[in-house]
Amino acid sequence: MRTSLKDIAQKLHVSKTTVSWVLSGKGNEKGISLTTQEKIMTCAKEMNYHPNLLARSLNTGSSGTIGLILPDISDSFYSQMAKMIEIEAEKHGYSLMITSSGSEKEREERMIDLFRARQVDGIIIAPTKHSPSKIIQMKDEGYPFVTFDRYFPELKIPYVIIDNEDSSYQLVNHLIQKGNQKIAIITTNSYLKTMSMRYEGYKRALESNQIIVDTKLYGEVSFKNYQNNIVEVLERIIREVPDINGFFFTTHILALEAFQYFHEKGIPFNQKYGLACIHDIPTFRVLAPQIHTARMPIEEMSREIVNILTLQIEQKQDKMNIQENLSCQLSCSITYRD
Amino acid sequence: MRTSLKDIAQKLHVSKTTVSWVLSGKGNEKGISLTTQEKIMTCAKEMNYHPNLLARSLNTGSSGTIGLILPDISDSFYSQMAKMIEIEAEKHGYSLMITSSGSEKEREERMIDLFRARQVDGIIIAPTKHSPSKIIQMKDEGYPFVTFDRYFPELKIPYVIIDNEDSSYQLVNHLIQKGNQKIAIITTNSYLKTMSMRYEGYKRALESNQIIVDTKLYGEVSFKNYQNNIVEVLERIIREVPDINGFFFTTHILALEAFQYFHEKGIPFNQKYGLACIHDIPTFRVLAPQIHTARMPIEEMSREIVNILTLQIEQKQDKMNIQENLSCQLSCSITYRD
DNA sequence: CTGAAAGCGCTTACAG
DNA sequence: CTGAAAGCGCTTACAG
User: Fold this and answer.
1) DSSP letter string over B51-66?
2) Which of these, B176, B202, B184, B188, lies nearest to B240 by C-alpha position?
3) What is the DSSP letter of A30?
4) Contact, A43 vs A8, CB < 8 A?
5) How many angstroms away from the CA of B257 is the closest CA of chain A?
6) Helix B53-60 × helix A53-60 angle, to 10°
7) How far apart are alpha carbons A94 and A44 in whole angstroms?
8) Residue A259 phi, psi dihedral angles, 5° rounding
9) Among residues A14, A50, A93, B260, which one has the fewest Cβ atoms lying within 10 Å of its Cβ?
10) How far apart are the first and last CA of chain A?
C-alpha cells in the first residue's frame, strides 16, 4: 500500500489538512509553524509519500492533462508534432496523453470519449476525414479543443493549419521560373480542404504564368492501396504526356513512393524532372537533393496549438467568455534547392 | 457541469447504488427490475451521462492505463513501437499514455514518478543509458513494469530485447560469404549492452571465417553531434583501409548519415561496398536496394512486452507471486537482398 | 428488488 | 497556528 496523507497525519498526530497544506507548498501562506512543516516534510520523505493525482484531480476538477489524438503515431509528421506538442504543453504545466485514431471515425470518437471520461482538460486532434459529429459536440458543450492538419472551414472551430494554397503556389511557381512547363500534380484525398487548397495553389501558379491547366497532368492517388495505385497514376501520366518535366507532390509519402517507382524503372528523375513537395523530410537530402520543399513549421504549429488550447482551458476556469479568434494559419518555410 | 450518478439518481428517485449497478452492466446480476433498468438507461442517454473514470479508478485502485516512456517519440523505431504497443494494450483492455524522456535521466525519472502519481497500472520503458535507480525502486516495490530496447543484464528485471549478437553475426557472415573481407563496423554508444552484443556478433562472424579483427575497421561514433562525427570516422577508416569493401551499421541512423556522406562525396557506395544494417526502414529500398538488414520484430516485441506487463498487473491484483520468467529475447527477421 | 453508508485520497471553505 | 467536516464522483459490502 502506498502511503497517503492520512498515514502521515496519524503518525505525526496532526490533521490531514495541515499535511495537505505543507505538502502542497502552502505551509507559509497558511501559517503553519516551521517545526511542523519540517516534521511533515521529513516524514513524507521517509514514508516515500507520493500524492495520488487522481484524487487531487477529482477534487480540483482539473487533471493537468491534455489529450492528443493522431491518425497514426508512426507517421513521421505526426510523431514530430507529438514531440513538440509535448514540449510546449509542459511549458504550460500540462502533461500529454497521446493516442491514435487509425483514421477511423469510430475509433476516433471512442478516443474522444475516453479522454473526456479520464477528465483531460482539453483535446488536440488531427481529425479524420469523417469526424465532425463529436467535434461539433465538443464545440457545443464548450469543451476546450483545437484541431490541426485537417480543416473544416464550414465549422467555426479552433484550428491551426498551414497556408496550403500559398505554399503550393510558391513551389510550383518556382518550378515554372526554372523552365518547367509541364508539371504534374500528384495528390490524394482531394475532398479534404487542405488538399484542395494545394491544388488551388498549383493552378494559380500555372495560370499566373499563362500555362493551361492540363487534366492529363493531374494524378489523384487513392488513399487505400496507394502503393500500387501510384504506379498506375505515374505510368498513365508519363504515357499521356511524354515530355513532362516536373512533379509537384502534395505529400512526402507520395513523393517517396514515386521515387521508389522511378528508381525501380531506372528513370533518372533527379536529372529529368523539376521536383517539389509539401513537407520536407531528411531522406530527401539523399534521395532527391534538388527537390524544392515547403517545410511544415512544426515548432510554430505546436506552440500555437498549445496556446489556443490552454487559453480556452483558462477561460473556462475563470468563467470568462472572451472568445477571441482561436484559429491561425501559418506559413511554411520554403526551401529552394537550386 | 457534467451529469453525475447522483443527478440521475435524484431525477429518478432511486439510489446512486442502483444507478451505478445498472450503468456498469450489473443490473441483471444484482436483480434490478427491467423497468428500472430501462428508465435509468434512457435517462443516462438523455442527460448525456459519461462516467468519471478518475472517480472510478480512485475506488477500484486500477486505472486501466499503461504508461509508455520512450527516449524520443519522433524516432521511427520508437513511434512504430508506440503504435503496436497501443494496439496490443487495447486488446488487454488498457489504454496507453505515451511520453518522452529525451534520453535524460532526470526527465525520465520525473516521468516515472508522474505516471505513478497518475496511478497507471504499469510502466513500459525504453530506458536511457543511466536509468537504473528508479527502475530498481520499481522492482523493489513490486510495481509492474517492463523494459525494452536497452538492457541491463546485471539487474534481474523484466525485459524484452532482440538477439543482437546473433542478428549481427548473421548479417556480417553473409557479407563475408559474398566475398567481402574488409568489413568496417560503424557503431555508437558501445557501453550499452545492446551495442556491445552487436560488436560481439560482428567479431564472431569474422573469427569464424578466419578473418583477423582489425581495429582500423572499427568506427565508434559519438552520440552527441554524430552528424559531424560520423564524417570523421568514415574518412579515417577509408584513409587507413583504402581497399575496404563492406560496412556493417549497428543502427539505421548511422547508415543514413553514412549514405548521405557517400552521396555528397560522389562515392558509389551501392556498387563499391557490401552493406548491412541492424533495423530495416522503407527508405533503404530506394537508397540502398542491396543492403542486408535485420528487421526488428516490432509486432512480436510489442506483444511480448504487453503480455509480460499485464501478467504482472494481474498477479498483483490476485496477490499471487508466481514470478515466472518475465523476460524474452526475440530474433530479428534477416533479409538478404542479393 | 432496492437503499443507506462508508470509503478511495485528496482539497478547501469555515471555525476557533 | 491548527483541526473537524464536507465534498469531488464513483463502488461495494451490508442490510433489509
Assistant:
1) --HHHHHHHHS--SEE
2) B184
3) T
4) yes
5) 9
6) 140
7) 25
8) -60, -40
9) A93
10) 65
- Cell 567481402: give the residue: B180
- What are the cell numbers at A63? 487533471
In which element (H, E) is residue B183 found? strand B183-188
Measure CB to CB from residue A99 to each of B80, B86, B285 and give the nearest one. Answer: B86
Q: How far apart are CA B257 and CA B269, in angstroms?
A: 13
Note the CA–C1' distance, A304 to D9, in angstroms. Answer: 34
pLDDT tens digit sequence for A136-188:
989 888 899 999 998 888 888 999 999 999 999 999 999 999 999 999 999 99
| Grid cell locating B321 | 507471486
The sign of the CA dihedral A6, A11, A15, A21 is negative
- CA A175, CA A276: separation in Å to the nearest integer? 8
Question: To which H or E segment does residue B247 belong?
Answer: strand B246-249
* DSSP string of B104-147, one letter each residue: -HHHHHHHHHHHHHTT-SEEEE---TT-HHHHHHHHHTT--EEE
Q: Kindly provide the b/e burial profile for residues B119-130, where b requires at least 16 CB atoms within 10 angstroms of the residue's own CB.
A: bbbbbbbbbbee
With a CB cutoff of 8 Å and minimum separation 6, the contacts of B126 are B69, B70, B71, B78, B81, B147, B148, B149, B150
Of B63, B74, B99, the CB nearest to A95: B99
List, for residues B156-168, the tens digit of each pLDDT value. 899 999 999 999 9
Residue A207: count other Cβ atoms within 10 Å of its Cβ.
11
Q: Looking at the predicted structure, is the pLDDT value of residue A53 above 70?
A: yes
Q: Which residue has the cell 563475408?
A: B176
Instruction: Determine contact: A83 vs chain B, CB below 8 A.
Output: yes
Beta strands at A246-249 and A274-278: parallel, antiparallel or unpaired: parallel
A53 Cβ nearer than 7 Å to chain D strand? no
Query: Mean pLDDT of all residues in chain B?
Result: 90
Q: Which residues contact A12 (CB under 8 A, 6 or more apart)?
A: A19, A39, A40, A43
pLDDT in tens, A79-120: 999 999 999 999 999 999 999 998 889 999 999 999 999 999
